[in-house]
Amino acid sequence: MYAQKPFKSIIYETQNILFWNPCANDGSGEIIAGSVVVKIILHFNKDGHLTNFSAVPQDGILIGESSGDTYQATGNGGASFDHNPSKGANTLMSKNLLHFVGPGTQIKAITKTHLTMNANGEVKVDFNIFFSECK
């Protein structure tokens, strides 16, 4: 067998999003819902193992349930993988930074997650940071 070159694959996926936005309606809040097309870029090593991916919102509008205000999703996210068969473990580190921008408001959410799976299939997940803020 010969080794192939590292490669990437690009896919587009529609994500349905529903969340409570405490910033909306002059601070009284409302549910925001809609669909966003996300561009996902997958990177593979020469052995064909997924090493990392990134995800970026491309198109879509979210609408406030009470006000009818529209919100645009921006930001990025992604993860890196470490396949280490000799140590019997796989790890995943992910980070997402999303902004939902609407009339006079913006909500920002940041999450970082570290997931480890050992050779026995036991999974441990640590949520390092979760932060959201209204502007």
Question: What can be said about this structure in brief?
Answer:
The protein has no helices and 7 strands.
What is the strand tally? 7
Count of DSSP-assigned helices = 0
- The arrangement of helices and strands along the chain is EEEEEEE
Strand order of the largest sheet: 1-2-3-4-5-6-7
Biggest pleated sheet = 7 strands, antiparallel
Assign a percent range to the helix content: under 10%
Number of domains: 1
> Approximately how much beta-strand content do the residues carry?
over 45%
State the end-to-end distance. 55 Å
Question: Shape, please?
Answer: elongated
Low-confidence stretches: none
Gyration radius, in Å: 18 Å
**Which whole number gives the mean pLDDT?**
80
Which helices and strands, and how do they pair?
Blueprint: E1 7-21, E2 30-44, E3 50-64, E4 70-84, E5 89-102, E6 105-117, E7 123-134
Antiparallel strand pairs: 1-2, 2-3, 3-4, 4-5, 5-6, 6-7
